[in-house]
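[job 4471] stage=fold_predict status=RUNNING
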Amino acid sequence: MAASYALNAGDPLDDLVSRVRGGHQPILLSRSGEPVAAVVTIGGFREYERLRDEADLALARSVFEDPGTVRISHEEAMVILDADEQKEAAG
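[job 4471] inference complete, writing structure tokens
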């Protein structure tokens, strides 16, 4: 689940969010010239979550349907998924 930040009038992010919302285009945030985050509309964020969930389900189904798959516990699977998400976030 994503963290939330409430905007108030005069907030430095308010103008940025208004630009994203009005233009329906994401804005990339960078640090030292490198993109580190994006501000997107809620629709864009929901689409991202939906696509990520679909990819996770497709991977799970492919593994489940493979007769050579070694079965692991839910806890072991969560450790693997968390490590994969950390790699994605870092890279």
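[job 4471] summary: The two ends are 20 Å apart (CA to CA).
[job 4471] exit 0
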